[in-house]
Amino acid sequence: MADIDATAADLEKRGVALIITPKLGLDGNRQCWIEDPDGNRIEFMQMLPGNMQEEAIKRMKKK
Q1: Over its length of 63 residues, how does the chain's per-residue pLDDT go in tens digits?
Q2: Alpha-carbon distances, residue 3 vs 7, 8, 26, 38, 60 (angstroms)
Q3: In the chain, how many domains are there?
Q4: CATH code for the domain of 34
């Protein structure tokens, strides 16, 4: 996801309530959350340079 703030604004415009508004997560990515009708949480993530997932993928490729 390229722009989590735009995605969050679009979701809200469509009547989807955010349970967690866009914020920087501990993994170095920006994220926000919604719930589906059954109460399952769904995460939207914007991966930023230097995030934990990117660093792990780089380490795996070196092996």
Answers
A1: 579 999 999 999 999 999 999 999 988 899 999 999 999 999 999 988 888 888 888 889 987
A2: 6, 9, 18, 27, 27
A3: 1
A4: 3.10.180.10
